[in-house]
């Protein structure tokens, strides 16, 4: 309230000060008969008055808009607020539609979850039967030694594939157990979330009802606000009309003041002429020039005085006669001046009445602006409540989306398990010769001449085709047949990628699982910049051991875990090679390192260190290094 009174006082004081300055400037312009833009003095005074009124209006609006954010919002952002309200209503309808859709999808997700549970149970039973068959196959291994001797050439591939499959099977069993645990946890979470969702749905319905009530109240308040804004605009229009009338009256007042000043100046000139004629009769020529200038401004009789310049004595008589006329005119002007003074006083009274009316209207506008501000504050509070309710609704939707993502993850896990089982069945049948994502050929190229890019890619594809024939058709030496399949577009993409003069590692990989006798093998290419991944001597992984308290088996297990961690770090760093060479890649070197480690009586840190610069394409050569208190005790490198 105090701020409003201060604002009104500031507007009144500033308007009065500007009006006073404008009045003084207009008065001085009228007295000095100044001219702006080649206008007459009277028009110049009117222009000064108009500028003063415009300045008062501009300062009033600037103060109002500068101090009242609600007024700025009501004048400039009202349409935007209404548009946002319409958009909010549309979004509310859209949210209701999405809610119905989400509930339908949730019902479908529940049914799909039940189906996934059934598939998981079936997969678990299949894996158990598979494990039983695997045990039986191990028992039958002794009976198949004779056949294995005949197929010694295929044994290496089969053993490696069997080891990979056994590892994948163990990993799959672990993932299945984890998935089963996750599924049980998710099921319990689903039950809890289902109850919580029901409660939240009830709360959401209640919140939506409250939100609808708040929206209706907000609409009602906005309607009241529109009425108040309309009344305010009407009052502002009336105020503008009164200000315009005031400016017009002030302009007329300035005009009358200018005329009064002009008459007073003419009166002073006439009195001066009379005294000059009586006292300075000898200086008629100078008086004539001065009187001619005054007659040009007041009577327009300069031509007559110029025609009578030759007869000075006649001019004197004529001037005396004119003096009598001017005295009569002076009396008439004084009478007119008295009438103008009366009009001026009457206009002052009217201006005072108008000012009091304007002040009263300004007070009413300020009160209505305050009421509008209170309504805006109420609407803002209601909007905050609605925003909080909408945030709660979005959190519920986010939780529901998380459940859907978990269900999708379980479905993908089931699909992967089924693919692993199919691959294992094919492997047990002895027919699977190429695995999905198996590397057929790897090459490092640097293309200096762009024309040589296609030749390099073709050479890699020829090598990959040869490897595919050797795996799918053992014994077939006709390597001119086209077995691998890759799209020309992908080949062009490879060429465009590698023709910039940098080193690239190119791998040709199998796109699927293929059995013996396949006529076509779909492949794809992986192109990676061949950059430095590890510098020579860089520590890749490390672990601490205490050989005095650990058994031989525990030491070997710790070293295996360290090597596995190194492989994980190497793959994560972007190295494409599948295997890590420790030392000279001999088992004796690794066992000798473990024996040396076993002889230590204190704690020793074992590190895996890059023995050479390692690039993306490989190879990966590492050394095991035993370090104690920062000193290297021994390592697996040949020169240790």
Automatic annotation (TrEMBL):
One cellular-component annotation, GO: myosin II complex
Superkingdom as given in the UniProt entry: Bacteria
TM region(s), chain numbering: 43-65
Keywords: Coiled coil, Membrane, Transmembrane, Transmembrane helix
Transport keyword on record: no
An annotated Gene Ontology molecular function: actin filament binding
A Pfam short name: DUF3084
Positions in coiled-coil regions: 75-413
Record-given protein name: DUF3084 domain-containing protein
Lineage: Bacteria, Bacillati, Cyanobacteriota, Cyanophyceae, Oscillatoriophycideae
């Amino acid at each position: 309230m105090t701020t409003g009174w201060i604002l009104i006082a500031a507007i009144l004081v500033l308007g009065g000060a500007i009006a006073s300055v404008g009045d003084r400037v207009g008065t001085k312009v009228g007295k000095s008969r100044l001219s702006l833009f080649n206008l007459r003095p009277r028009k110049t005074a009117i222009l000064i008055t108009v500028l003063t009124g415009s300045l008062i209006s501009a300062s009033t609006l600037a103060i109002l808009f500068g101090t009242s954010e609600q007024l700025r919002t009501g004048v400039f952002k009202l349409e935007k607020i209404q548009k946002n309200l319409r958009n909010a209503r549309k979004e509310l309808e859209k949210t209701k539609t999405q809610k119905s859709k989400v509930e339908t999808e949730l019902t479908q997700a529940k049914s799909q979850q039940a189906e996934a549970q059934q598939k998981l149970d079936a997969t678990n039973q299949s894996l158990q039967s598979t494990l039983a068959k695997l045990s039986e196959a191990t028992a039958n291994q002794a009976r198949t030694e004779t056949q294995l001797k005949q197929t010694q050439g295929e044994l290496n591939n089969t053993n490696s594939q069997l080891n990979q499959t056994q590892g994948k099977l163990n990993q799959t069993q672990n993932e299945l157990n984890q998935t089963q645990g996750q599924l049980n946890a998710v099921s319990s979470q689903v039950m809890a979330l289902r109850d919580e969702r029901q409660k939240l749905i009830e709360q959401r319905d209640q919140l939506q009802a409250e939100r609808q009530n708040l929206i209706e109240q907000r609409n009602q308040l906005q309607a009241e606000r529109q009425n108040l804004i309309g009344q305010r605009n009407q009052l502002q229009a009336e105020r503008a009309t009164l200000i315009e009338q005031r400016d017009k009256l002030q302009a007329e007042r300035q005009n009358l003041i200018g005329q009064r000043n002009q008459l007073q100046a003419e009166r002073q000139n006439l009195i001066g002429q009379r005294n000059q004629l009586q006292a300075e009769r000898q200086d008629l020529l100078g008086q004539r020039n001065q009187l001619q200038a005054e007659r040009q401004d007041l009577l327009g009789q300069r031509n007559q005085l110029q025609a009578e310049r030759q007869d000075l004595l006649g001019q004197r008589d004529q001037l005396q006669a004119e003096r009598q006329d001017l005295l009569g005119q002076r009396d008439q002007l004084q009478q007119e001046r008295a009438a103008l003074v009366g009009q001026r006083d009457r206009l002052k009274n009217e201006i005072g009445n108008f000012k009091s009316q304007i002040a009263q209207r300004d007070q009413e506008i300020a009160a209505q602006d305050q009421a509008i501000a209170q309504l805006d504050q109420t609407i803002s509070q209601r909007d905050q409540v609605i925003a909080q309710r909408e945030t709660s609704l979005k959190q519920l939707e986010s939780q529901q989306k998380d459940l859907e993502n978990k269900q999708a993850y379980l479905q993908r896990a089931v699909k992967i398990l089924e693919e692993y089982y199919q691959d294992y069945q094919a492997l047990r049948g002895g027919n699977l010769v190429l695995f999905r994502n198996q590397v057929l050929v790897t090459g490092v190229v640097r293309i200096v001449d762009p024309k040589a890019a296609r030749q390099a890619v073709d050479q890699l594809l020829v090598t990959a085709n040869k490897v595919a024939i050797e795996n799918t058709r053992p014994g077939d030496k006709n390597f001119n047949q086209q077995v691998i399949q890759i799209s020309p577009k992908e080949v062009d993409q490879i060429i465009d990628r590698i023709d910039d003069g940098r080193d690239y590692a190119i791998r040709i990989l199998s796109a699927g699982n293929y059995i013996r006798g396949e006529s076509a093998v779909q492949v794809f290419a992986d192109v990676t910049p061949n950059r430095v991944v590890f510098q020579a001597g860089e520590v890749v992984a490390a672990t601490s051991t205490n050989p005095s308290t650990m058994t031989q088996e525990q030491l070997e297990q710790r070293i295996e875990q360290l090597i596995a961690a190194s492989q994980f770090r190497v793959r994560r760093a972007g190295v494409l090679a599948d295997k890590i060479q420790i030392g000279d890649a001999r088992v004796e070197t690794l066992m000798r390192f473990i024996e040396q480690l076993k002889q230590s009586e204190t704690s020793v840190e074992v590190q895996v260190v890059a023995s050479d610069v390692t690039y993306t394409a490989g190879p990966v050569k590492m050394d095991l290094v035993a370090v104690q208190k920062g000193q290297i005790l021994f390592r697996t490198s040949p020169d240790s």
